[in-house]
């Protein structure tokens, strides 16, 4: 049945010159641009561009004319903002490392009573936003009054003021570290329990004990992961507004708020923001360079079993238990417990019909925000999968930078273009039709929704992307070859298979929007309150017991949000 | 009339300095026949297949499927409009759909009633009646590949593409499935392009075999022709042990391969084409045994020419065995020992 007439030509054959037939660079670039016209690539480019507008606006203002206050700010207030931020980053960052890395090592390589419990319980502090933790410890300074009095009586009022300052910085650093260390803990735990388990076993068979293995093998291998966790901690500290403003430590985020709202100088605020953004980008770049080509959690060598855990002697096991108990207590048990006690005392005062309205409004805005963010992230992730060019990946990277940019900066970057739109085209239309002059964008939920999209796109994008990567590409090809378009393939194959990742992404974004403070504070419409802003305003009025009810609800939502986060950070899953 | 015509197709990934994945390959597959593309991993065979399926865009060349011009560097008919069926190495069954829904997936233009009938018929064809309600995770690897084949054949494609469909299966299952697939392809008169690294797969299933290496097509022909007259050392060794012998020695017994190939006075010969004697005779070459391996029905010998300087000419081809090295089969009763002298002559 062989068709004898099979013509065969191997023009070129084994001729070494055959390889010179590759297209010239110019042609390749041209082709790349032609591919760029595919609808999915264009979609990705559009999403990336829209989401990058705030950042571009801020960076563009770096070179604009500074306001009249700029000289004053630069000389007098800005150094203070920077110094305060640096102090908090330095202390809290180091503390996070000192807690997170050893705790991760203990729960993933040693056996001691309570290990299983702490393995997940040590993540729980992440359920407390920094500002909620600050409110829970809000009256802690009062309990140090006896010390302060002692200092004053002994060394005089200068020492008294000094001690007060030191106490304030110390307490805020401790609070920040005790709710942020889980970032370091999670990333190093993933590195220790999966990436390194084969190497840890190899090191032990080569005659190194646990300690030596930690320093020589596990720690160097986990370093990229640890640095990634640490950079998240630093970004959270820079982003924080609620905790530092509550304790009166003007960091750079507070500085942006003050310059803009109190001094009424948006030009200077933008300049500070641009500086912050450059700093954050440098931080990100450093993290990326340090990571190099090593994958963060997933990928690399996959061990299909965990290394055998070492059982500890009674004394060391007690030590390990205490070591894990301490951060869990300060980061979760004590603050959550205090909130609970306060809530019992004050719930009757807080749970008015107005509060239920507030709650449903918060849910609505978080829900809308989640849908928006998911939609954008899905477009971006799917475009990366089907687009024939490699340009989508850098576009996606640009679009997801927002998670690193402090909320105050994003808020400015959103308000400036929207304010322009309101002043010019919208006003023109309104004038034309004789409508009342109303703000269409700024100060409305549209602006808030856009801000959430910019800030949280990465939160949804990464689980979706990794879900897509776990899905074998042949499934798409099979669907295409069986006659379905890319869009039909998305709906019939990819989305049903992505259900897990989609719900994880949805929960994460929902919780993040729910607890978001600085963005919401700036961009919310007049009189619009969410749980987070309510907690903020109650706390600033000094009503800490009342503030516990919204705070507790945020913590409850945060705990739900930890479920998918914990699973995502677990590292490689064995689905195909 | 060829059903698939690949003309001068090239594809290049990555940086401009990298070797092309597929370089100027032309293959034609006549209607109702199967052509196997054989090559090791990285030979570009899967890229070639994906270009035929419309999943990759060629840098140059053309691909015709049936009467239609389906791929050029400027214009590629989308995979969903090409009328190709594709079976993947891992089956790529949709895990969230039942077997029946998997098979029906490609038949959306078929009326509902006929669709169900066709699914049943396809399941019968691959010998899996009654599997329709199961999910992919509830079937074995071999069954999954049968279902993938049924799914690909269900929409009646112009051409069926198989991408290493047996390589995830163990040996015995692989053999059985291979025979079944051969039967199904013949029975349905399907035109098929089949990509594999396993020469046994290719020899069993294909009407024509194309050998690819580093993106280039080395040789195409019927299985027997490729086996007996490989064009170079690589093609020769791909299908089993081969010996390089002077053309004059084989004169009259074995025709040289296609003109222009070899042509340096040497020919490739399979061990079974040589008779091994314990005494010298006319037209024999004396060899010395260096290694003996017992493989059941025969002994496999490694041997060297006795007079290396006169006979063995150093081969510049890196794939050739060391100069003068031969592989021989010995079926006699006597045990052969290393160091022993033997004589060979064409069979």
Highlighted features:
heterodimer; A: 576 residues; mainly alpha; MetI-like fold; 24 helices; disordered N terminus; disordered C terminus; B: 347 residues; alpha+beta; Rossmann fold; OB fold (Dihydrolipoamide Acetyltransferase, E2P); 2 domains; six-stranded mixed β-sheet; five-stranded antiparallel β-sheet
Describe the secondary structure blueprint for this structure:
The complex is a heterodimer of chains A (576) and B (347).
Chain A: H1 25-36, H2 39-60, H3 70-109, E1 110-111, H4 115-121, H5 130-136, H6 140-143, H7 145-155, H8 157-195, H9 197-205, H10 210-239, H11 242-246, H12 252-262, H13 266-291, E2 310-311, H14 314-350, H15 353-386, H16 392-399, H17 407-433, H18 445-470, H19 473-481, H20 486-497, H21 499-515, H22 518-523, H23 531-540, H24 544-569
Chain B: E1 2-11, E2 22-30, E3 34-38, H1 45-52, E4 60-65, E5 68-71, E6 84-87, H2 99-104, H3 112-125, H4 141-153, E7 159-163, H5 171-188, E8 192-196, H6 199-205, E9 208-213, E10 216-221, H7 223-228, H8 233-238, E11 243-246, E12 266-269, E13 274-277, E14 285-294, E15 299-305, H9 308-311, E16 325-330, E17 341-346
Parallel strand pairs in B: 3-8, 3-9, 6-7, 7-8
Antiparallel strand pairs in B: 1-2, 1-4, 4-5, 9-10, 11-12, 13-17, 14-15, 14-17, 15-16
Helix pairs in contact in B: 3-4
How would you characterize this protein structure?
Helices cover 76% and strands 1% of the residues of chain A. Chain A is mainly alpha-helical. Chain A has a domain at 351-529: Orthogonal Bundle (MetI-like fold). A two-stranded parallel ribbon of chain A has the order 1-2. The longest helix of chain A is centred in the N-terminal third of the chain and has 40 residues, at 70-109. Chain A is globular and about 80 Å long. Residues 1-23, 295-304 and 571-576 of chain A have low confidence and may be disordered. By secondary structure, chain B is α+β, with helices and mostly antiparallel strands. Chain B has two domains: 2-221, P-loop containing nucleotide triphosphate hydrolases (Rossmann fold), CATH 3.40.50; 240-346, Nucleic acid-binding proteins (OB fold (Dihydrolipoamide Acetyltransferase, E2P), Beta Barrel), CATH 2.40.50. Chain B contains nine helices and 17 strands. Chain B has a six-stranded mixed β-sheet with strand order 6-7-8-3-9-10, sandwiched between helices. In chain B, strands 13-17-14-15-16 form a five-stranded antiparallel β-sheet, with no helix packed on it. A four-stranded antiparallel β-sheet of chain B has the order 2-1-4-5, with helices on one face. Mean pLDDT of chain B is 85; it is low at 308-312. Chains A and B meet through helix 1, helix 19 and helix 20 of A and strand 1, strand 2, strand 6, helix 4 and strand 10 of B.
């Amino acid at each position: 049945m062989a068709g004898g007439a099979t013509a065969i030509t191997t023009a070129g054959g084994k001729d070494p010159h055959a390889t010179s037939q590759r297209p010239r660079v110019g042609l390749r670039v041209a082709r790349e641009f032609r591919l760029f016209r595919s609808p999915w690539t264009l979609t990705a480019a559009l999403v990336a561009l829209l989401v990058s507008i705030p950042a571009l606006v801020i960076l563009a203002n770096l070179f604009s004319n500074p306001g009249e206050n700029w000289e004053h700010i630069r000389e007098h207030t800005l150094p203070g903002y920077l110094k305060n931020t640096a102090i908090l980053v330095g202390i809290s960052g180091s503390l996070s490392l000192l807690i997170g890395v050893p705790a991760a090592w203990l729960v993933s390589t040693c056996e001691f009573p309570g290990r299983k419990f702490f393995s997940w319980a040590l993540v729980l502090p992440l359920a407390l936003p920094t500002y909620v933790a600050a409110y829970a410890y809000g009256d802690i300074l009062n309990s140090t009054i006896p010390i302060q009095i002692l200092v004053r009586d002994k060394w005089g009022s200068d020492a008294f003021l000094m001690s007060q300052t030191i106490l304030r910085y110390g307490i805020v650093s401790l609070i920040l570290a005790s709710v942020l260390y889980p970032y370091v803990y999670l990333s190093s735990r993933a590195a220790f329990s999966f990436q390194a388990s084969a190497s840890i076993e190899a090191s032990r068979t080569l005659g190194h004990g646990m300690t030596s293995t930690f320093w020589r093998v596990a720690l160097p291998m986990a370093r990229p992961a640890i640095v990634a966790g640490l950079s998240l901690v630093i970004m959270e500290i820079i982003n924080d507004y609620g905790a530092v403003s509550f304790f009166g430590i003007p960091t750079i985020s507070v500085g942006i708020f003050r310059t803009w709202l109190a001094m009424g100088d948006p030009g200077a605020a933008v300049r500070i923001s641009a500086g912050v953004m450059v700093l954050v980008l440098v931080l990100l770049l450093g993290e990326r360079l340090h990571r190099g080509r090593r994958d963060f959690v997933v990928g690399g060598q996959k061990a299909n079993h965990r290394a055998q855990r070492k059982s500890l002697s009674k004394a060391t096991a007690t030590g390990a238990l205490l070591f894990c108990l301490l951060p869990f207590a300060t980061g979760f048990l004590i603050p959550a417990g205090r909130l609970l006690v306060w809530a019992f005392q004050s719930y009757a005062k807080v749970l008015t019909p107005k509060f239920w309205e507030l709650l449903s409004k918060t849910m609505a805005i978080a829900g809308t925000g989640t849908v928006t963010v998911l939609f954008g992230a899905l477009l971006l992730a799917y475009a990366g999968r089907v687009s024939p060019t490699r340009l989508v990946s850098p576009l996606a990277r640009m679009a997801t930078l927002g998670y690193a940019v402090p909320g105050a900066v994003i808020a400015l970057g959103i308000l400036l273009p929207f304010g322009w739109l309101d002043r010019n085209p919208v006003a023109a239309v309104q004038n034309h039709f004789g409508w009342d002059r109303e703000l269409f964008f700024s100060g409305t939920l549209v602006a808030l929704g856009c801000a959430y999209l910019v800030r949280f796109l990465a939160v949804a994008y990464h689980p979706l992307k990794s879900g897509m990567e776990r899905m074998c590409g042949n499934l798409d090809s099979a669907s295409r070859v069986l006659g379905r378009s890319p869009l039909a393939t998305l709906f019939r194959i990819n989305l049903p298979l992505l259900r897990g990742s989609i719900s994880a992404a949805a929960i994460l974004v929902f919780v993040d929007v729910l607890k978001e403070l600085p963005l919401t504070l700036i961009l919310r419409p007049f009189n619009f309150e969410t749980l987070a802003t309510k907690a903020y305003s109650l706390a600033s009025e000094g009503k800490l017991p009342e503030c516990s009810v919204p705070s507790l609800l945020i913590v409850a939502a945060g705990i739900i949000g930890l479920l998918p986060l914990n699973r995502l950070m677990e590292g490689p899953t064995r689905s195909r | 009339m060829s059903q698939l015509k690949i003309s001068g197709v090239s594809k290049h990934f990555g940086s401009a300095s990298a070797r092309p994945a597929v370089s100027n390959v032309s293959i034609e597959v006549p209607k109702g026949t199967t052509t196997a593309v054989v090559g090791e991993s990285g030979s570009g065979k899967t890229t070639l297949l994906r270009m035929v399926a419309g999943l990759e865009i060629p840098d140059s060349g053309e691909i015709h499927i049936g009467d239609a011009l389906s791929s050029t560097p400027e214009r590629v008919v989308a995979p969903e409009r090409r009328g190709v069926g594709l079976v993947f190495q891992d089956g790529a069954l949709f895990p969230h759909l039942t077997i029946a829904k998997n098979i029906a997936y490609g038949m959306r233009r078929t009326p509902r009633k006929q669709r169900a009938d066709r699914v049943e018929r396809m399941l019968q064809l691959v010998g899996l009646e009654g599997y329709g309600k199961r999910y992919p995770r509830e079937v074995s690897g071999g069954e999954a590949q049968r279902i993938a084949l049924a799914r690909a054949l269900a929409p009646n494609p112009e051409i069926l593409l198989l991408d290493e469909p047996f390589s995830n299966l163990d040996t015995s299952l692989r053999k059985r499935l291979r025979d079944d697939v051969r039967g199904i392809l013949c029975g349905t008169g399907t035109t098929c392009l089949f990509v594999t690294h396993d020469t046994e797969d290719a020899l069993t299933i294909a009407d024509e075999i194309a050998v690819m290496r580093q993106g280039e097509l080395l040789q195409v022909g019927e299985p027997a022709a490729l086996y007996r007259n490989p064009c170079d050392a690589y093609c020769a060794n791909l299908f089993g042990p081969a010996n390089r012998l002077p053309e004059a020695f084989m004169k009259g017994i074995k025709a040289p391969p296609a003109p222009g190939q070899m042509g340096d006075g040497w020919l490739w010969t399979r061990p079974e084409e040589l008779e091994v004697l314990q005494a010298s005779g006319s037209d024999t070459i004396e060899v010395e045994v260096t290694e003996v391996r017992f493989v059941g029905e025969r002994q496999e010998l490694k041997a060297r020419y006795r007079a290396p300087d006169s006979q063995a000419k150093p081969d510049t081809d890196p794939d050739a065995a060391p100069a003068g090295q031969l592989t021989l089969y010995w079926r006699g009763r006597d045990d052969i020992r290393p160091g022993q002298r033997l004589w060979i002559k064409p069979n």
